[in-house]
Design a protein that fits this description.
By secondary structure, the protein is an all-beta fold. The strands form five sheets. An eleven-stranded parallel β-sheet has the order 2-4-7-10-13-16-18-20-23-26-29, with no helix packed on it. A seven-stranded parallel β-sheet has the order 6-9-12-15-17-19-22, with no helix packed on it. Strand 30 and strand 31 form a beta hairpin.
Length: 268
């Protein structure tokens, strides 16, 4: 499409963001953004009424947001993106193309907010990382997108991570220690589910409210370790093992195992 006026930040320049936005002010065409390694802290990047954005190098928005509320396409070009959060709560048809990008979300609250409609996520081989290790809660509002690729939750900190809605992921990783809660009465589907704690760093998995959620995987074996499980239904055809874990209540489909002197045994 036509160029909307490319934006290039000069390496070595000083940038001081104050909550402004960088959007293509047109209804078609593409704005290419080159940040040259600058931290564009406080700047938000998003589309307008149909204009597109393509990244030509890594983008670090610091405390700013990657926003996609209006029509158009954001293509990360396979480059890494660091932002406080991702926002997509509009209703216009729009596309987010992630390629091989790693999207690191550093904030709290709704760090991934796909609460709108008509967003198409082309996940490709991307990884989304929820990185905050503080005491504040984080929420991933997936919006029921057909398929995300990898989601990784960084370990540490007492703040919960809530996964809302019914979503599909490739590799879903919970690092230790962390508390992750899923929306009750929804099913999240995975190709691989990784949750490996240790005796001093327990991973807690439960529902946001006091009812069961469902974790589904079609095949393979998931071997969770040092989990604290409540109201979790594990299903789909895969084997769901929980080694040295606690069956609090309301769980089905998990094989609770104990290791002792190199041996494994089932336990109730």
């Amino acid at each position: 499409g036509a160029s909307l006026g490319n934006v290039t930040f000069v390496s070595g320049m000083t940038f001081s963001g104050t909550g402004g936005s960088l959007i293509p002010l047109a209804t078609s065409g593409t704005m290419n953004i080159t940040s040259n390694g600058l931290v564009l802290s406080g700047l938000s990047v998003g589309t307008s009424g149909g204009g597109n954005i393509t990244l030509l190098d890594a983008l670090n928005l610091g405390t700013g947001a990657l926003s996609h509320n209006n029509a158009g396409t954001i293509d990360t070009g396979g480059f890494s993106v660091t932002a406080n959060n991702f926002q997509s709560n509009g209703s216009a048809a729009r596309t987010l193309t992630l390629g091989a990008s790693t999207i690191t979300l550093t904030g709290t609250g709704s760090v991934w907010d796909n609460s709108g409609t008509n967003l198409t996520v082309t996940a490709n081989t991307s990884t989304i990382i929820i990185s905050d290790t503080g005491a504040s809660s984080k929420t991933f509002v997936g919006g029921g997108v057909s398929t995300y690729n990898n989601l990784t939750i960084t370990g540490g900190g007492s703040g919960t991570v809530d996964i809302t809605g019914a979503n599909t992921f490739n590799i879903f990783t919970i690092n230790k220690p962390k508390t992750v809660r899923f929306t009750a009465a929804t099913t999240n589907t995975f190709s691989s589910f990784i949750a490996a704690g240790d005796s001093a760093n327990i991973i807690t998995i439960s529902s946001i409210t006091a009812a069961t959620h469902t974790l589904s995987q079609a095949s393979g074996t998931n071997s969770g370790r040092y989990l604290n499980l409540t109201n979790s239904i594990a299903t789909g055809g895969a084997t769901w093992n929980a080694l040295n874990s606690t069956d609090v209540s309301g769980n089905t489909g998990w094989n609770f195992l104990r290791s002792s002197a190199g041996m494994l045994a089932f336990f109730d």
